[in-house]
Predict the structure.
Amino acid sequence: MSLEEIVSKINSKIIKNVFIPTYRYINKDNDLYILLLYKKNTYLNPYKETDIFFSITINYTFPKIIPYVRCISNFHTPTLYDNRNYFYSILHYNNENNNINSLNIETIFELFNKIPKFLNFIKNSKENKILSYFGTYLINEIYDVNDFIANPIINFYRIYMSYKNKKDFKKFKRYLILTEIYFILIEPAPDCLNLGKLLFFGDINYLKQRKIDTFDKQHSIVYLKINENITLEFIMENNTYNEFIKKVTDHIKTLNNEFDVYEDENFNDNNFRNVIQNFDKNRLLKEIEIKEEIFKNEKNIYFYKELTILYEKLLEKNNEYNTQFKNLKEKYENFNFKENNFEKKMKISKSILNI
């Protein structure tokens, strides 16, 4: 189906004065950009006092590539307007059998219909003081920095990074983007500085573990240990660093004041399998390493399920890791994972929303 046919079908089903889409074609490939307005004081918008906009970008190769679904309104703290793709998050609820191999025009209509349910879930989670990490960024994907800084809440910094010691020092230009819950590192493209490859993104709370040293009179060097094998080093001007840390401190304080529980989205086996289905051996090993580091400190049923699925996928490619997988299962298969506050409140949320 062509993008023009998609527009025609959408126009035949729109709900006038309640749900309003507009369209344009973007970039050299003429991808389809759909802007969705969920009007305030309508049944599709649970935030009655503000209009809410989402955008859906449909690649010209659709359905080979999933749509990119962005929120482009500030109506919630922490903001959802930070360039995450909410495709899986929106289709996750009430869609246990979601499969990216079955994308079609009905998937687009499903997104339209599920966004209000998604908004209801976010609103209810906030009322129960649950912070769920919806949406995703993709490592090594190319992003337009303007899509982040279009929201004035998002902070942008030019920094340098080094993976060497001072003796062999080389500087690499990087962009550091600070949202209200994430920090993101981007390698700018040499021939188009508004574009860049996303190298890393992490929870803003990681920044509490930072160590700082003097690099020279004008610059500080920040060391950030993510786990035993990953330490990030970045160099910032002193004034920039002071501003950056003040923003980080303010964001963390706000999160601590407004939320009691921090958790990833309610776990969905099929969703997670879709995410990792094209990972190679090295990517799977890196994901396992990070999840195991987290699991050491938090015995959570969701992390355990993710680890088992990652190992199962890895063993499809190489059975030399069978012993590690068996050890994990023997130790935790019958482990009593206690129901935490998140799980209790999630049951309340799902009951209220009838999902």
